[in-house]
Design goal:
This protein is mainly alpha-helical and 140 residues long. It has five helices and two strands, in the order ααββααα. Strands 1-2 form a two-stranded antiparallel ribbon. The protein is elongated, with a radius of gyration of 35 Å.
Amino acid sequence: MKYQVPQFIEFESKIIGPLTFKQFIYILGGVGGTYIIYKILGIFPGILLMIVLWALAGSLAFVKINNKSFIDILAAAFAYLTKSKLYIWKKVDKPVTAEEKVKEDTSVTGFLAPSLSQSRLKDLAWSLDVNKSVYPEKKQ
């Protein structure tokens, strides 16, 4: 049995005209807030608050920053402002002991690799050559 897989699931469907449900609620909230300000303060004293409310409602409904909605940006800004922060101005360097140095070196690779000097490299190459001559590879 074949099932139809829905396409474009990351897009919200337009429910009320050209607006999604969220956009409609934001715009409706802006209009309702404007009406309340008009009834309480009147047209001339409340015009500045109305403009701010319209800008906020329009931003919530239509603005996207870096493909994130404006409400997500406001939530992140509020969380940043209210959470405690840790400020570190100066890093205090403590002397490193030889034991800590070895621990640091071995923690990265799992073992402490010796450095190869020129004579050690020659000895290693010679031992490999000797093993090849003693144990030649089998040909098939």
